[in-house]
Design brief:
The protein is mainly α and 283 residues long. The protein has helices at residues 12-42, 48-51, 57-91, 97-112, 115-126, 135-161, 164-172, 177-207, 219-230, 233-269, 279-282; strands spanning 273-274, 277-278.
């Protein structure tokens, strides 16, 4: 049995305790779910009339359209945030203070401002009263600025986490700093960044729900018309929350699969060379 530096391999007694803890936790979880269902039943929240809208094709179509809008806002914000993060993350690594200082100011500012305040600002300034931006784009821009600033820090940390010998070997064969970052450090930093990138994608998807405050389309926007018509606030909240959970699980599963595939391919192709020259010889 292989041992880990950070975790001792459990013995027979420890494994037995782990099984007991797992069984007890599952029983407690099942008991809690049963209690919730019983509570909902006592309050009449499981009546068919309250759940009927979610079995009606017309309402399902509206919910699916809202889900599509939510995904469009999330993926648009994620793609733009990656571009934003790459630009400002690399700018923060610049040797020139005139580039590094403004990039630091922009990143720290948008990391500090709450997303809802950013959405509200763009809505009041550029959307309400016939402005050039729709609430949809106010949500996308706000999520881009916030998540892009977080990704800029993730990118900077990922590049700094690459072993320094890689950059030293690249400099030794005459590569410029821009080439070292784009060709040597950034591809290796992607593997380090992937867990944080996956987490930020989930955050962006969930934060689209804040667009409800500025009348942006999405899943949370269709909640109010449904529960006002059928007075089924609890069933509506359960269905919408379940959709968010399912989509986030699918997104996380896809990103994790891509991460494992990328890491596996990288291990197969991993050779101690930089720019076509053996890194040990270059140093």
């Amino acid at each position: 049995m292989s041992a880990s530096v950070l975790f001792d391999t459990p013995g027979p007694k420890a494994r037995r305790r782990h099984r007991i803890f797992t069984i007890v936790s599952l029983l407690l979880l099942v008991g809690f779910l049963v209690l919730v269902v019983m509570r909902l039943n006592d309050r009449g929240q499981l009546e068919y009339a309250l759940w009927e809208p979610f079995l009606t094709p017309a309402y399902l179509e509206v919910i699916l359209e809202a889900l599509l809008k939510t995904l469009q806002m999330a993926f648009g914000a994620i793609l733009l945030a990656i571009v934003f993060g790459v630009v400002f993350g690399i700018a923060k690594l610049s040797d020139h203070r005139i580039v590094r200082a403004p990039a630091w100011l922009v990143v720290e500012f948008f990391r500090a401002v709450p997303v809802l305040l950013l959405m509200t600002f763009f809505w009041l300034a550029f959307s309400i009263g016939g402005g050039p931006l729709s609430p949809f784009w106010c949500v996308v821009i706000a999520l881009t600025l916030y998540n892009g600033s977080v990704l800029a820090e993730v990118l900077r940390a990922g590049i700094n986490a690459v072993p320094p010998g890689q950059a030293e070997a690249a400099y030794a064969i005459g590569m410029r700093k821009s080439q070292v970052i784009w060709l040597i450090q950034l591809p290796q930093a992607v593997k380090i960044m992937l867990p944080a990138l996956i987490s930020q994608c989930v955050v962006a998807l969930k934060d689209t729900s804040l667009g409800f405050y500025i009348t942006a389309p999405g899943l949370t926007a269709v909640m109010r018309p449904i529960y006002l018509e059928f007075q089924n606030q609890v069933p509506t909240a359960i269905v919408i929350a379940s959709i968010y959970i399912i989509v986030n699980l699918l997104l996380t599963g896809l990103a994790t699969y891509l991460q494992h595939k990328l890491v596996g391919e990288k291990k197969q192709l991993d050779v101690p060379m930089v720019g076509g020259v053996d890194s040990g010889r270059a140093v």
